[in-house]
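Give me a protein, keeping tokens residue-aligned:
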Amino acid sequence: MATPETFTLHTTDNTARRASLVTAHGTVETPAFMPVGTQGTVKAVDPVDLTNVGSQIILGNTYHLRLRPGDELIRRRGGLHRFMGWDGPILTDSGGFQVFSLAGLRTMSEEGVEFRSHIDGSKHLFTPESVLSIQRNLGSDIMMVLDECAPHDADRQYTENSLALTTRWAERSRKAYPEDTGPGLLFGIVQGGFFPDLRKMSAEQITSIPFDGYAIGGLSVGESKQEMLDMLAVTAPLLPKDQPRYLMGVGAPMDILDAVALGMDMFDCVLPTRNARNGTLYTSQGKVNIKRAEYREDDSPLDPACGCYTCRTFSKAYLRHLYMARELLSYRLNTVHNLAFFLDMMQGARQAIEEKRYLAFREEYAGVFADGSAETL
């Protein structure tokens, strides 16, 4: 499990935490945002871009990489780091989110989940044991156990059964990958839907298993922002203080900052990269829809407070032109900026916690993103 040699809690500001997590490919300073590289690439940018905007760690996806190009092929090429030219840490999801998002293409049983490929219809069985084998072939620095992410409107009986299955799968995962087996860290996942007592039950069960870190799953799946925060407030204090805490799939700026205030350390979401490709950009002055006609002759930088390549080099007028012309460069420049915005925000959060002014820092962002509403994809 994560030890003082791998996870160090440096300081706190109320319940916000500033820590470091050591992995086989480098140290992650937290709170940290992890760009999503589902298929071995963060869409529209390359590893140099990722380094330049301050990425410490990225994600890959077990389900997608198993289907294409195949984890064995990646293993024969030296693992995912070498294959994609990224030498920093990589966290890989287990395919558990696809249990939720591809519900029409899967069948669940005690053994695991059988997916019908969204690519060619072929069948693939994912079990707690096989997803760890896949992630080890990928060379993941942080591996996630197989779980079920229940729908937000699932009833109590369904959620209770789902929670119990997730716990049994977690126990099988730890048995399949005993402590000190290899350099990869293994994280357990707390579920429990939107029932506070089931969240507590799941947290007790999952944290009784000696994982290297603990994630909270099953949030940001269609519920309101208040529902998400209520479940997070119930669950976060139940996770061990001396181990990393990962909130899965939550990515709107205020949602991240609220979760940091509640004691979470790690975050991921496709929101900044997907919105970049759709022309929605995050700035120190709020969100910008770059396709709006008002930017047609605007020679100012996208965000004068941002030092990324996009903002240093190009005008809003040029960014709008690229987007309206559907030029490929639009996707890259927009993505570089959005990632820089999120990663700069996390750097600011770390500094604010160190200086014991985190709540004031959060309020600065709340003033810009005033509606505070959760963003959905």
